[in-house]
Request: fold
Amino acid sequence: MYRFAQVFMEVFRGERVVWGTVAWWRRLCAFHRILARVVCEEKVSWVIYYPSQVRWDDRIKQRPHHLLGRLASLGEGIVVWLESRGVGFRRAGRVLVGSPRSLLWYGPLPLPCRVRQILYLSSTDVSIPVSVVVRWKVRGGQLVYELIDDLRVTRVNYPGWVWLRVACRHKLLMERGLPDLVVYSAHALRAWVRTSAVDVPVAFIPNGVDTRHFALTAEINSSEGAQPIVGFYGALADWLDWDQIEAVVRAMPDYIFVFVGPVWSKAVRRLQRYGNVEILGPVSYDFLPVVARLFTIGWIPFRSGAIARATSPLKVYEYLSMGLPVVASRSLWMCRGLPGIWFAETAQEYREAIEEAVRWRRVVTRVDRERLREAVKVYDWEVLGRELSGFMGLVVGRGGRKWLNGREL
Reply:
């Protein structure tokens, strides 16, 4: 029992309310009252619980913000967004934001209205062990498991004990067939899901784009300046090919290279000595289109390999939604088939692709830019939210264990 408590303390040591204490039980009771009132008032058919590693009001919006937000906006249910820190609960539309995440350890709550209670668990989350998932299933809850990374090749992104915990949990979940639905974001993950799980329904939901958000400033995009601007926004992490980036920057002094996003890699320091490089740091999601409209082209220089093949880069859809041509790594399989993308792998190929994309950008017509926007409308978060809602209705809603005949199996 002492070791059990140690594990709880280790997982939730960053939270203000510790599992099992009097304060925790008070928070659980308060949460139960609020959730019961909201469920009855809204007359929902399901409640999704999502243990989040980021805050709902974080200025950098990620996949869960968009996908679960759109899912809640459809009006069929509400999303409970549980954070590690915070005081009390608050409403954000049809999203109920609160803390701590350890409230999920109790399992599905007894609600006065008959609703389906679904635990939406990401493969990268370390706060929910298998024992909690089993308790959730035994008490009548259901599980949607989202696979967004190939855990076999992303070990370098986690500390040793964290990766071991995530990998072991994934293995147990899939081998025991605990998920009612597995959602994966890239085609390269499909074969891994099939080989690691037996008789588990799967659904392909890639990353997407808020087309209205990124189309607002697209019409005033200007790239007729003296120097072309090659832009990248996103995490400046080790999955970018910094050797090729430095070689391209050094070989193209007449081009300005702009990097927007949090710095997660020490390799960024290598670019600071070049006069044609600007590192702006993180920018809020609301202000991001205003910055990106200054780009001549978008750039996604991922390191070639399995990580890139298992990635669904949402920034590709955002660039195209603004009518920008894109130069991307050849290993980004999810980008293939889309217009306005030039692929490269070596520094020389990147240089040639950038020059060609800039030439295209300067002679492009409004019709050509509209063609890029039309190509990514199928990846709008609203469309993807409806697809996920349909998948959940077929499998989770009926409690069945059958295969889906949807967008991808």
The chain has 14 helices and 14 strands. The longest strand covers residues 116-122. The chain has two domains: 2-208+382-394, 211-379. Confidence is low (pLDDT under 50) at residues 1-15, 399-409.
